[in-house]
Amino acid sequence: MSIVSWCHWLQNTPFATGIRQSDLFFPLIEGSHIIALSLSVGLIVVFDLRLLRVAFRGQPASLIMEQFVPFSLPGFVIMFATGVLLFISQAEKVYLNPFFRFKLAFLVLAGINASVYQVKYYPKMREWDKSGLVPWGAKLSGALSLLVWAAVIALGRTMAYEL
Amino acid sequence: MDLQRFWEWFYSSPAIDVLRNAKYAIPLIQSFHLFGLTLVLGTVVIFNARLLGIGMGKITPPVIANQLWRITLIGLLLSITTGILVFIPDPARYASNTAFKTKLVILIASILFHFTFFRKAIRSTTPTPRGRAAAVAAVSLTLWFGVGWAGRAIAFLG
């Protein structure tokens, strides 16, 4: 079975049809997907701004990470769960939508960028915090994160326009 | 030129015509609108979580307010500017939409509350009493998230 025909089957299951045709659940799921941006991307942006020394210059980056970033986790859980439900409800059209594919690619990029930070810069944060400077690679990671998440938002908005 | 004539001129100007007809102009503008929303609601969540004493205990509310107040404002300006750009090409659609009118009222209430009671609570160097902090946070979160939900409802309600 090809992926398209699997998507076709998926969106025609009673569960998917139920979401798609619900005047209550579809707007609620879609609205939650957008408004949870505040919890997920919103908190990541604040940490990116610290790396770029735009906000909280007087506080160590490790402190800002420890105090704010854990709050983004429930946000990303909501994002992922509602995203999966939205996909199921319109699987075929979404799968064929070029903006969706770019959005997935940028999500992977965001993941790679965050992983590189975790491996390369996170373990030594307390050391470079003392000097008050942010290594250029960590700064680059913060800037990339801002750009990639902005692109994810733009691609998400545009793909919905095409559905 | 009176206001009515100004809007008519603006509505039919070539620049607005480009927005109206270019295929991806509106979704692109709405993307920035959503990025603005992310900044506003994201920082509002941080302010309120701190006010309520949910985590972030190592940074005081006035420090958080000092550092992030501008970010909220940048997000707000971005959302308002892009909101106007989405509204102008198709005013009739929005002017008659109940969710849109509700959104404007809640937005004005949010801004007024944010720059008065909320600002005072978050910038206070003495801890805000628990009951008062809870009340301020409840109003702030209800208003700002109300703006977001009313905005989303524009697409679903008439």
Report on the architecture of this protein.
In chain A, 79% of the residues lie in helices and 0% in strands. Chain A is mainly α and 163 residues long. Chain B has helices spanning 3-11, 14-21, 25-52, 61-87, 91-95, 98-123, 130-153. Chain B has one domain. Chain B is an all-alpha fold. Chains A and B meet through helix 3, helix 4, helix 5 and helix 10 of A and helix 3, helix 4 and helix 7 of B.
How would you summarize what this structure contains?
The complex is a heterodimer of chains A (163) and B (158). Chain A is 79% helix and 0% strand.
Question: How would you describe this structure in keywords?
Answer:
heterodimer, A: 163 residues, mainly alpha, B: 158 residues, 7 helices, 80% helix, 0% strand
Q: What is the makeup of the main sheet of chain B? A: none
Report the helical percentage of chain B.
over 70%
Q: Indicate the proportion of strand residues of chain A.
A: under 5%
SSE pattern of chain B, N- to C-terminal: HHHHHHH
Overall spatial form of chain B: elongated
- Count structural domains of chain B: 1
Radius of gyration of chain B: 18 Å
What is the rounded distance between the termini of chain B?
33 Å
Total strands of chain B: the figure is: 0
Query: Rg of chain A from C-alpha positions?
Result: 19 Å
Class from secondary-structure proportions of chain A:
mainly alpha
Element-by-element helix/strand order of chain A: HHHHHHHHHH
Number of helices of chain A: 10
